[in-house]
Amino acid sequence: MANSAQTQELVYLVTGGCGFLGEHVVRMLLQREPRLRELRIFDLHLGPWLEELKTGPVQVTAIQGDVTQAHEVAAAVAGAHVVIHTAGLVDVFGKTSPETIHEVNVQGTQNVIEACVQTGTRFLIYTSSMEVVGPNIKGQPFYRGNENTPYEAVHRHPYPCSKALAERLVLEANGREVLGGLPLVTCALRPTGIYGEGHQIMKDFYHQGLRLGGRLFRAIPASVEHGRVYVGNVAWMHVLVARELEHRAALMGGQVYFCYDNSPYKSYEDFNMEFLGPCGLQLVGTRPLMPYWLLVLLAALNTLLQWLLRPLLLYAPLLNPYTLAVANTTFTVSTDKARRHFGYEPLFSWEESRTRTIRWVQTAEGSA
Ligand SMILES: NC(=O)c1ccc[n+]([C@@H]2O[C@H](COP(=O)([O-])OP(=O)(O)OC[C@H]3O[C@@H](n4cnc5c(N)ncnc54)[C@H](O)[C@@H]3O)[C@@H](O)[C@H]2O)c1
Ligand SMILES: CC(C)[C@@H](O)CC[C@@H](C)[C@H]1CC[C@H]2[C@@H]3[C@H](O)C=C4C[C@@H](O)CC[C@]4(C)[C@H]3CC[C@]12C
């Protein structure tokens, strides 16, 4: 792609391009990738907002498709220079079966890899997750670790298992020969907890607070740090990796990079209050209001209720044994690998990220 810096001749494909992260990647590419000729957006559910993107100089092609269907993926990938694979089932609430999570997140990723190999696409960026590393099932903290920090990544939950398997497939595919005889170059980005405009879980917490009279009740000690990263900076890292991967293939190919920015280290609940507080909510308690054993009991009860109610309705509360364990285990990153390898610097400061997110919560709720 070296000779295309001045001309618009590149074709990008973003899978999951209508999701929370995917939409930000799509918009960031249109704003900050001048070499784009065509941007393909592949998703099971296409958003109506895509229409507004079709008036610009870049050809925007919306493709309704399923990553579990190899032929649909191959048709979407054919002719693309770069694939950014964000599509996936982000389900830690028991909404979908373990089999479906595996089929989408693992088999779907395999389909993307094979499509690149069979059609000659050379650059594949995979949106992995912090959960590939942890927190592990032993509840061992990962305190401001980096990509080389030793940590026993042991998972049982279908979601982290699927992300770890998919990431391994992507990294192992680095160097495979694609149609045309050149090597496939892959890398994986590991966001911690992404926040920002479009974050459904943030809205869920906001609605929960409204239902409880403007109050949320602390369940996790403030000392338990949880890594968070602004969606705009995650999108920017994807764009930058896609731009640099060819020229730095020897360094970046087969590598993983945590997504990070200058968001502060706080507990999950305290971090959320950076946005929900200015929207009128209050976090009650400087310490957890309930003993941990009671939270464990309530989480187990939620799992039982989910199972009992499943024939009638989907009951998927925020509190379950997995989310409680994750929330209650410190997991934060401190790294500069992305800066060292491809010059990444956060595009949005913490102040900007916070302001944009507050504004979104306020308008999203206002519009609701
Ligand atoms: N949200 C986070 O905090 C976070 C953190 C780290 C990593 N990630 C990863 O980032 C990626 C995007 O996550 P998100 O939070 O934007 O989730 P999301 O659910 O908002 O977006 C996922 C998108 O993938 C699409 N999709 C799902 N199944 C599909 C299928 N079979 N075929 C085609 N498209 C399909 C969905 O329609 C959706 O638009 C995921 O791979 C997730 O594992 C998310
Ligand atoms: C009900 C309380 C115990 C409350 O504090 C639970 C919070 C819980 C819903 C979230 C705490 C940590 C979150 C996860 C983390 O941010 C990283 C993730 C990786 C990403 O790939 C997908 C989302 C998630 C699993 C994220 C999900 C919500 C939490 C478990």
From TrEMBL:
- Keywords from the named record: Oxidoreductase
Which molecular function terms from Gene Ontology are attached? Answer: cholest-5-ene-3-beta,7-alpha-diol 3-beta-dehydrogenase activity
Q: Does the keyword Oxidoreductase apply?
A: yes
**Pfam families found in the cross-reference section:** 3Beta_HSD
The record's annotation in InterPro entries points to:
3Beta_OHSteriod_DH/Estase, NAD(P)-bd_dom_sf, NAD(P)_dehydrat-like
The residue ranges of the 3-beta hydroxysteroid dehydrogenase/isomerase domain are: 13-283
Q: Which SUPFAM superfamilies match?
A: NAD(P)-binding Rossmann-fold domains
Cellular component GO terms held in the UniProt record: endoplasmic reticulum membrane
In the UniProt record, does the keyword Oxidoreductase occur?
yes
Provide the GO biological process annotations.
Answer: steroid biosynthetic process
> Which family does the UniProt entry place this protein in?
Belongs to the 3-beta-HSD family.
This protein is called what?
Answer: 3 beta-hydroxysteroid dehydrogenase type 7 isoform X1
Q: Which gene encodes it?
A: HSD3B7
